[in-house]
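step: validate -> pass
step: tokenize input -> pass
step: predict -> running
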Amino acid sequence: MFFNQQMKMRHTNWGWQSMSVAILLLIFIFFNKGYIAYGQNNTKEEVKKLKSKLEDSKGESRARIFLSLCTLYLTFSADSSFYYADEALRLSKVFKNDTLTGRSYMSIGFLHMMTGKDSFSISAFNKATETFSKISDSVNLAWNYVLIGQFYYYKNDYNKALKYYSRSLQIYLGMNDPQHYSRMITVLNEISYVYSDQKDYKHALFYLFRALEIAEAIDDNGLGKSSVFSGIGNIYFDWKQYKKAQEYFIKSYEINKKIGDNKALAYSLNDLGKVYFETGKYETAFQYHKMAEELFLEINDNIGISSSATNIGKYYRVKKKYDIALKYFQSALSNCKQNKQQSLVATLFYEIGNAYYNMNMPAKALDNSIRSLEIAQSIPYQEYIYKNYLLISDIYAATASCTDAFQYYRLYVAKKDSIYNADIYRQMSESEDRYKSYLNQKEIKILKQREEIQNIDMRRQKIFRNSSFLVTMLFAALVFVALRSNRQKRRANLIIAAEKDRSDKLLMNILPEETAEELKINGFAKTRYYEHVSVLFTDFKGFTGLSQQMTPEQLVAELDYCFKAYDAIIEKHHVEKIKTIGDSYMCAGGLPVSNTTNPVDVVKCGIEICAFMQEYKQKRMALDMPYFEVRIGVHTGPVISGIVGTKKFAYDIWGDTVNTASRMESSGVVGVVNISGETYQYIKHDFNCAYRGKVEAKNKGMIDMYLVKGCKDEV
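step: predict -> pass
step: emit ->
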């Protein structure tokens, strides 16, 4: 459809936003055509019928047919749609029909909005507003406000969009007419999209669940309710709550399948495919995306076709069939560029960069990722800003550009933390709980209605009066008790599941994931021997003296600030944190999962920690405040790992390698990574090092030591 190709789609969840446009168009067509049937398969047939009526029509009747033809042509011909809108406007003015005049202006404004002619669009909408206000046509005025809200929404002017959506909503609420409830649902949907774009999930879900309550009240089982379910699912998907997202996507899918809407059904399949992909069920995801692709091709939906190509390309990427993946990505990119779909372009440049990264082609990977980042920042598109930060960090790390890698990783952590936090999830849960409470109240209301019906029957049948009353009350009591019992069980199960999830997360925070799983399954974790592990120690120079210059609260805050940064750095390089003791920080690479890259990984961590501490020092000096300076030591060799204790148990490692790594730190130089001769043999081809000679280490004698000067490419 030509109009869909002009819309700004700022999310990867194309289905949700495109469905919003579909609903808007559907109701717009209904508004302008009266009760003419509408559907993808019969639009052209309706055009033929209407044209045949033109010969016998005159005056206002002819203007109405022109207006109907305008809206029907929206789906496949912009030029024809414009022609009939202009003709409808001309005739409605001739016959001084203000309602038709206003609708004609509204149609023209909508057409200009879809084709990107902003000044013409807003001018036509304003003329429609003046016309409807003059004749006090609240119904048409309310819908015109929705369209103006859409205009500002696609311009990123969220305040004005909310202003006009709110005006429309107030009019519909003032009418309190069930005939307009479907339109209220649409307005609530549009408001939720504005809040969702701004990552205000609390308000986004509030308006979606309000829409859902109205849909439940009028027993709406059509596209409006499906769109609400899809919108809720996409918010949970954005928040990575995939189980909840799947729950609502399935509800949307079942409705779309029942009503036979192929476009909506295709987007539902697309949504479900996304969930399966993100949860690692790649084959199932592939099947769903192929089914969606077939429907998109059948209905010639360019945005949907691009979406499917992207998702199928991602499948081939995870299967390491990069050449096939790139073909799908390039095909989708060509289509999106042609249709000016900037958010999809940003997504595809990222996916192409990711594919090249996995193909060990860092230059091409970096070029595409930076292009994606620039577009994402200009829209803005928050998800792909932080995704590109991480990808660029990984690319720099792969090319041993450690400083750049660390800087982009810090940007990634900061951006991701700003989007995903526990408070937002709590707000989301509150909105859903409110809707569930509404459903529970509805159940009780239904029971009461049934009870009233039974009481009426009892009065009519006096002979069975007493027995009927007892049976009815017993039935109502049993149903109520059963419902309450089920709800209590569900609530108890949710509490148990939440507590289990909390304890699991706590356990994962204390122990390595593999060790934690072993402990949960067996009740104990085996002691393990590792032949090849790199151990890193850090310590602060003159810590005791510095600690006396700070209050206890300041001291703990400074340590927490530094160690959190260390945690982020080692997590990036897949290095395991072991423990902190006072101002000392200990981590190790090559466990609990053995690998051969751990000497390089750990040294990279050491270099990035030094870079962080140098930046930290400069900031503190600028503020004339005391600062820490770090010493870092690394040694490579065998260790033993295990869990010690039964209360406040901890994961730890032992062996001469640990002791030697500690001596590397205590014998080190401030601001530089000090490594042993053993570690040097593993990393000498990746880093420039200065030989210190044999240095005396406490209780270890003379040991070969090297200072790491930096990655090879930085010298």
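step: describe -> The chain has a mean pLDDT of 79.
step: cleanup -> pass
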